[in-house]
Design goal:
There is one protein chain. The protein is built from 13 helices and 28 strands. It has 615 residues and is an alpha+beta fold. Strand 27 and strand 28 form a beta hairpin. The N and C termini lie far apart (132 Å).
Length: 615
């Protein structure tokens, strides 16, 4: 009964307070509803820009330059960036209108696979900053994160050295196969003004020395990689520039981020900073008595004694016949609290520099410097240049992947030699090699099945005939290209070869001048080589190795004549022996009858296989 009376009182109290609760609910905003709206608000839609496939053989590309910045409006058909493919630099256009919200792959950040996310755009009317904050590579847009406290400082990439935030210049990718480069020369010094298009530095790639130009105006504030710095990975920071009017001396040096260059920049700084600390913490103990390997002591024990400068007379041995063992040395070190001896050996340069002032002070002539010690092993290791490493890698791949077939032909070059003399008398200093280039280009017109490239193990016929000519340089072999050689006269080919070979030896070739040939010629005749075989220059399918001329007696006429032997190396997967024989037959005919080089296509030049089989 008591419990029933209590429940009745509580019910009447609730009925009296109900109007007040409803009035309070109308006055106070519902917190629960506000929270629900925050979680269910729609996310700004984004348009994903992925690395496109700009050529049939393209698997990856490199962003060379962004033509739009974050926050800039973009219309359909606008070019947003330039992309280095496996063939050339191609501009990427967009199909939609919007605002470029976020760039994920910066310029010169290395190779990016086709299909990977490189940037996002916000649609018209959307907040591009929200799109940028909610987008991430490889993930769908997520709800915008909570806004940070306005009083908190903005998060920036770690830097050191100054307060001015500069623009980091990274090691660019100057060829499709380039993974690292060497700084050969800086054309600008720290503090010098830069304008767009100015030469900044020369970089040794895996192919040649290529000049790097500045993309923007400003001032070169700091050079991070000095001349001679080798093995600099693509994307590593090499310099920092600031805008005009900013204090370039107070530039912040990146120590993290920056396209992967921060770690490389931070490492030398950390090493330099850590060196004094390490030197201060280590006590160098000199040895007054040279260590002598005692008899009846094992090598491990003797090494430990020499490291701690322990004389054998100070240790009592516990081994057989009183010999000293390793346990005795460890016990001695522990009892006497010894530390390993650090031998300070000055470098030869410092030692020589320290000797000179001493001689000047005493007035006595310094003793003659000892002769440099010869390597005890009998040989010296010489590190390969990046260019030679790439050559070795590509030739090894070619020899392993392409089964090489060979076909040789010997041609009489007396007529070519007489025609060459006529050119020389007319003021054109042409060579036999110039006639070889013209004959090869003409033979490819008769046998176009050899004028191909192999891409992903598929044949790609080439419409143009561009002859690569092997040129030996101090840093390695390079193949400058005589473009459209079939349409050029011999004197023009000669001028092109001389100009290209000269710039190749000076490492001044442009990318399109040594990449993209359709057939290669390697001529060692000027070095006294009679005949040899060459390795196919991938992705081409054939290469011609040309030997030097030699005198023989023709058994038919019993007269002396000059002959030249050439050997064709071809990819047996795509070119058979009969096709190689057709090419070599046409080439030999053109070399023996050079007047046919300028007559145009004559069907009778190429041997009819069916007619040849009937004879």
């Amino acid at each position: 009964l008591d419990s029933l009376l209590q429940e009745s009182r509580m019910l009447r109290a609730c009925q009296r307070w109900q109007p007040c609760v409803r009035q309070a609910t109308r006055c106070v905003p519902p917190v629960v509803s506000t929270t629900a709206c925050m979680h269910t608000s729609p996310v700004a839609s984004a348009i994903q820009l992925k690395m496109p496939s700009l050529s049939p053989t393209m698997e990856e590309g490199t962003i060379v330059k962004w033509l739009k910045k974050e926050g800039e409006p973009v219309e359909a058909g606008d070019v947003v960036c330039d992309i280095q493919t496996d063939k050339a630099v191609v501009s990427m256009e967009v199909d939609d209108e919007g605002v470029l919200a976020k760039i994920f792959i910066q310029a010169d950040s290395g190779a990016t696979k086709v299909g990977e996310l490189i940037a996002v755009m916000a649609e018209d009317g959307e907040d591009w900053k929200s799109v940028a904050a909610s987008s991430a590579p490889g993930a769908a847009p997520a709800p915008a994160p909570p806004q940070p406290d306005a009083s908190a400082p903005p998060t920036e990439a770690a830097s050191a050295g100054g307060s001015v935030q500069g623009v980091v210049i990274n090691m660019p990718s100057l060829s499709p196969t380039m993974t690292e480069g060497t700084i050969v020369k800086w054309y600008k010094k720290e503090g010098e003004k830069l304008e767009a298009g100015d030469l900044l530095c020369d970089i040794q790639t895996d192919k040649a020395v290529v000049s790097m130009e500045a993309d923007d105006d400003g001032v070169l504030a700091k050079i991070l990689m000095q001349e001679g710095s080798s093995g600099v990975q693509v994307g590593i920071a090499i310099a920092v520039m600031v805008e005009e009017g900013e204090d370039w001396k107070d530039v912040a040096i990146p120590v993290s981020g920056g396209g992967g260059g921060g770690d490389a920049v931070a490492a030398p700084a950390a090493a330099e900073a850590g060196a004094p600390a390490a030197a201060a913490g280590t006590v160098s103990v000199s040895s007054d008595h040279p260590f002598v390997h005692p008899s009846m002591v094992g090598p491990a024990t003797a090494l430990l004694m020499s490291q701690y400068n322990i004389q054998p007379d100070n240790i009592s041995g516990s081994g057989p016949k009183g010999n000293i063992v390793k346990a005795d040395v460890k016990k001695y070190i522990k009892e006497h609290n010894l530390s390993a001896v650090v031998h300070d050996v000055p470098l030869p340069e410092k030692k020589a520099a320290a000797t000179a002032p001493a001689a000047a002070t005493t007035g006595k002539p310094a003793a003659a410097a000892p002769a440099p010690a010869k390597p005890r092993t009998g040989y010296t290791d010489i590190e390969l240049t990046s260019m030679r490493k790439v050559i070795a890698k590509r030739l090894t791949e070619s020899k392993q992947m392409a089964p090489h077939g060979y076909s040789s032909a010997t041609a009489c070059i007396d007529n070519v030699s007489r025609l060459r003399q006529d050119y020389i008398k007319s003021g054109f200093k042409v060579s036999i090699n110039d006639f070889v280039i013209k004959a090869v280009a003409t033979a490819l017109q008769y046998v176009p099945q050899l004028n191909i490239n192999i891409v992903n193990e598929e044949v790609v016929p080439m419409s143009n005939i561009d002859i690569s000519v092997a040129v030996a340089t101090d840093v390695g072999l390079i193949t400058p290209i005589v473009k459209d050689a079939a349409a050029k006269p011999v004197q023009q080919i000669s001028a092109d070869v001389k100009e290209l070979a000269g710039r190749a030896r000076e490492n001044k070739l442009k990318l399109d001048e040594f990449q993209g040939g359709t057939f290669t010629i390697s001529n060692l005749g000027m070095f006294g080589i009679t005949e040899f075989t060459a390795i196919i220059n991938s992705p081409q399918a054939a290469i011609l190795a040309v030997g030097g001329g030699r005198q023989i007696i023709n058994p038919d006429t019993m007269k002396a004549e000059t002959v030249m032997t050439s050997t064709l190396s071809f990819d047996r997967r795509y070119i058979d022996e009969a096709l190689a024989a057709d090419f070599m037959t046409v080439f030999r005919t053109l070399m023996e009858r050079p007047e046919l080089l300028g007559t145009g296509y004559l069907p009778s030049i190429r041997t009819d296989r069916s007619a040849a089989q009937l004879q």
